[in-house]
Amino acid sequence: MFHSNHLKMINYAKGLGDILIVGVSTDELVMSYKPSPIIPFNERIQIIEALKTPNIVIPQHTLDATQIVKNLHIDAFVVGDDWLGKYDYLEKLGVQVFYFPYGVGISTSKAKNAVMKNYSKLQEGQKFEKPKKINE
């Protein structure tokens, strides 16, 4: 699920260079390391394409960014700090790697859990809890 920290990271990345290429993970890639995304790939890529910040939006089929970096001549790579250290290998290719601080408490998982909790209450005929900010 796209949330405000994703947007902050995209805007931060835009300030690092002239052209911003944003990779959107395919459903198959996401499912290789966590549960299936609730928003399908074709909709997620359309959301990112609708933003004015990215110049190019591409599908991301693998966690190994070596080929994309080489093929597209990428010199700066930005990823959330939940992947801290996992892309350091790109530095050997001359790429600066930036781990964007995701922020305390902001996560897709928390948003999904809040939705499911309220949906379950609705199913049981209970009232919804007043929504909290995702980062609370």
Describe this structure in words.
With 136 residues, the protein is of the alpha/beta class. The protein folds into two domains: 4-102, HUPs (Rossmann fold); 104-136, no CATH class. Helix content is 36%, strand content 15%. The strands form two sheets. The protein has a two-stranded parallel ribbon.
For this entry, give a set of tags.
Rossmann fold, 5 helices, alpha/beta, two-stranded parallel sheet, 2 domains, single chain, elongated, 136 residues
Shape category: elongated
User: How do the SSEs run, as a string of H and E?
Assistant: HEHHEHEEH
Number of individual domains? 2
Instruction: Please write the CATH class name of the largest domain.
Output: Alpha Beta
Structural class: alpha/beta
Question: What is CATH's topology name of the largest domain?
Answer: Rossmann fold
CA radius of gyration is 17 Å
Strand ordering within the main sheet = 1-2
Which architecture of the largest domain does the CATH hierarchy give at level 2? 3-Layer(aba) Sandwich
Gist of the model:
The chain is of the alpha/beta class.
Summarize the topology:
Layout: H1 4-14, E1 21-25, H2 27-31, H3 41-50, E2 56-60, H4 66-72, E3 76-80, E4 96-100, H5 108-123
Parallel strand pairs: 1-2, 3-4
